[in-house]
Every structure is written in C-alpha cells, then in structure tokens.
Amino acid sequence: GIETLYCVPGVQNDNFFDVLFDHQDRLKPLQVRHEQSAAYMALGAALSTGKPQAFCVVPGPGMLNATAALCTAYSVGAPVFGLIGQVPSKGIGKGKGLLHEIKDQSGHLDRLTKFTTLITNPTKAEAQLRAAFQAMLSGRRGPVAVEIPPNVYTMPTGVAEVPDFIYRQPEVRVDPAQLAAAVSILAEAKCPMIMVGGGAVDAGNPIRELAELLGAPVVPYRVGHGIVPTDHVCSMYAPVAYRMWKDVDVVVGIGSRMSCARDWGTAGLKIVRIDIDADEFLKVAPDAGVLCDAKGGTEALVAELLGRSLACVEDKDARLADCERLSKSFREEVSDRFKVACDLLQAIQRGCPDDVVFVDELTNLGHISKFFWRTGGARHHLSTGYQSNLGWGYASALGAAYALKGKKRVLSINGDGGFLFTGVEMASAKLHEIPLVAIVVNDNAFGNVKSLQERWYGGRNIACQLASPDFVKMAESFGLRAVRADTPEELESAVRKAFEANEPYLIEVLLDHTLESPHPDYVFLPQIRS
Length: 530
What we know:
Blueprint: E1 4-7, H1 14-20, E2 28-31, H2 35-49, E3 53-57, H3 61-65, H4 67-76, E4 80-85, H5 105-110, E5 115-118, H6 125-137, E6 144-148, H7 176-188, E7 192-196, H8 204-214, E8 218-219, H9 238-243, E9 250-254, H10 259-264, E10 270-275, H11 280-283, E11 288-291, H12 294-305, H13 316-337, H14 339-351, E12 357-359, H15 364-369, E13 381-382, H16 393-403, E14 410-415, H17 416-422, H18 426-431, E15 437-442, H19 447-456, H20 471-477, E16 481-484, H21 488-501, E17 505-510, H22 519-523
Parallel strand pairs: 1-2, 1-3, 3-4, 4-6, 5-6, 7-8, 7-9, 9-10, 10-11, 12-13, 12-14, 14-15, 15-17, 16-17
C-alpha cells in the first residue's frame, strides 16, 4: 500500500532510482531538501493515515540525518519503512574510508528500529523485504530499516515476478483467564479511570463504550488525543486527572505506557492493562494484564462487563458530573493563567475546518495545546511521544498534508526556534503543491527554555535568545503566500483565508515576550500516591 517515497537521492542509490524511473505510476518519488525531512514526512504521513510509509536516503551522513525521525517513529509506534543505502558490499566493515562509510551502520539502525536487515544476496531479497514488512506491521508497530549496497541492485535475483505482499494482522485471541481477572477487578471498582496512548488510536469506539459503561474519564498524555473526542463527557486532560488521582481505585491502561500512573504513584491502586506488547507489563506491572490489541481487548472487556453488576454504576452520573465540572473549571483556569496562548489557540481553532489535523511542536503554544486544543477524533492531534524532539513539526505536517491531500486539511504550529530545523522544506511544499497551513509564533527565543530559566533559575537566561528572520518575507521568497497576524482576531481571519486558499501558506505571529511554559505546574507533577 506504499505509494510515495519521501527521498533525497544520492550516488549509492542511483541504480535504484534508475529502475524506479519506469515504475513511478506505482511508487512516486517525492524529493525533499534534507534527509531529516524525508524521514519526518514519512512519519507524519504514517501517523495521520495509520498506513505504512517509506523514505529513502544515502548511507552515513544521510542515514544519520534521518535518525531523529526514526527514534520518534519508534517512540510512537509508527509504521515507517527506511530504505537506506550502503557502501559496496565488499567494503562493508572494512574501514577503508569509502564514500559515506561509517562504522557499523547496521548496528546504529538496529538500536533505532524494530527490525533492520542488510541485503547482500539478491536471491534472498524477497524474503528479507517480507520479513521487514511483517515486523513493521505486526504486534506493536514500529519503524524498520533495509540496507542495500549499490552493487546489489544490479545483481540478478532469479525471480521473474514478485507477488504483492498482503499483510493480515494475525488474530490475537484474548486469554479467558486474563480477561476474567480484569473483569473481576473492574466489577468492584468504585472510581475507575482509563489512560490511553498511541497503541489505542484505532480503538476509539470500544474505549468510549467502556468509559460510558463505567463512568470513567479517558485520559491521554503525550499522544492519544482524540481517541475519545475532547468534547465527550468522559474525555479528560492529564492535569485534571492528576487532581482526582488520589480518589481513583482502579486505572485501566489501554495501548499506553502509563507514564502518568508511574510518575504520579500507584500505591493502593489496582491496575488493569490491555496491550499487544507483553514487555509493557514489566514496566508498570498490572494486577490484570490482557495481552491483546487495544481494539480486540477492549471489545472483549466491554462484552464481559455488559449485564454484570458493577459497583461504579451506582454513582456514575454524579462522578461524570464532577468530571465535567473539574474539566470546565480547569479550562477556565488555564485560559486565565495562559491568556495570550489560549487566546491564540482559540482564534486558530475558530478559523480551522472542524476535522483539521493538528500537528503540534515543542514550543510553549504546542505544550499548552495538549490540554487546551479540542480534538475531534483519533489521528487529529499528532505529537512526538516521549522523544519530544524540537523541530519535528513542519516536515512531519508536510507529510501528513501530502498523504491527506484532498481528504483532510492539516495545520502546523511552530515556534521560531523549531521551525528553522526544517523550514527549508517550504521549497518542497511549493514544488509538490502541498496545501499545509503553518503558523510560526516568533518571539526570537527558544521560548520553553527561556521560560523555564526564568522560573527555575532566577532569570539567568543563557543560550536561549535567537535572531529570527522575517518569516513572511522568507516564505514569500520560496513562492508561498504569507501574512502576519498581530491580534487573535487577525489570526482567526488569516487562518480561515489560508485554508480557503488551499495552497502552501504561512502565518507569522510576532510576540514581544515569551509565552510562559506550562511544565512546572501542569506537566512535571509530583508523585501523590507513594
């Protein structure tokens, strides 16, 4: 199902691209300006569609440029296929100083991916490629890398035709004993909570049913936003969940690392987990662990709970009313505490289509969006997971916008620091006519760093000031339409016009101060159950 190859060509892959020339109807090369961007675009496309995506780069420095995106794909379980060049096969591991040679490239890739393979015998290539796709898509999804030396591309395979690879997820049967243990715990729960992560992104319907059945709030953290839409009565931001954490007696983790539970403390708490990855049960140990994909496991759990006597049902309506009251109060608190940021976010949201895909960044506006932006569905708020790598946003959003072209619109928010990591890809946006709307909030600083230095280190600001360009003129020099918005009202209008234009577009917001970081009071929360 891969139709696009995000790429930066180079000499070690020239033989491959020469063959690809005759097959562009099946696999379209989409050339970009930097290997980092090629891999990020594949990542953004994978996160927004749920389908496998591919990138191609040369070995050595090209491969290393792509590693930030690879480790992010690993952290969020994204099916990204990396086609990586190599030095000629006879020179691998010899240390002869061949073009782009690095020591143990395969070892580097192995530590960043779910599966890595080096093809040196073309008669075995089909089996190795199938193994790579199988690893990428089975169980807990993740990135894979296939290395091919330039001389191997020209060797005969002995295969006249390669049949299409059709992947079918193996059926994972729920263990009745595991399910029974989970049901037993939940039947006695009086104040349950559900935590969801990237592994639950395709399980929205049964998770919503479970939440409504139990009267339990559903809490995303870094990822998982929109699995249950923000406006649903059971949806709850993580900082709100923290405030009721002492009262929770059972927490259900579905496709989640349960970072919040680990950090907030689990003393006196019963833990139920549904996860496809058994290793997760070793990190936050459950009282009942159901080894299954999120959708199948949650459906089975709901089916078993329906019709049973549940202790939490008695005061379910009152608890949900309390959750709704807490969430409303929290939103008002955040709106007041981070007024400038929230006014900007609300203006942006009013200007967006209802089903916009929102791609955040490691900027204070992005951090605040994780507990203020209203997300209408799964895969509609894309984020980096635990890698939290600055500069991922624009290129990843370009990949999402290209993959969703003609289906959904995509919005990218950026700070001036992170945007310039991949801002050169405005050239790619123009070349490939990618209708991404990008907002750059420019305060001439690494804003999150500066804010934390002011809060924690008495304003001893160091290495955080920037001299940023005029982003409107910069975008226009690449051929993009660009405007500056000075007020929330101007920003709302600019966003609406940008989406109506349906072309690459940039909006700059100039700030004369740095937005406050939410981390000290709303993200780095101390343990309260020990």
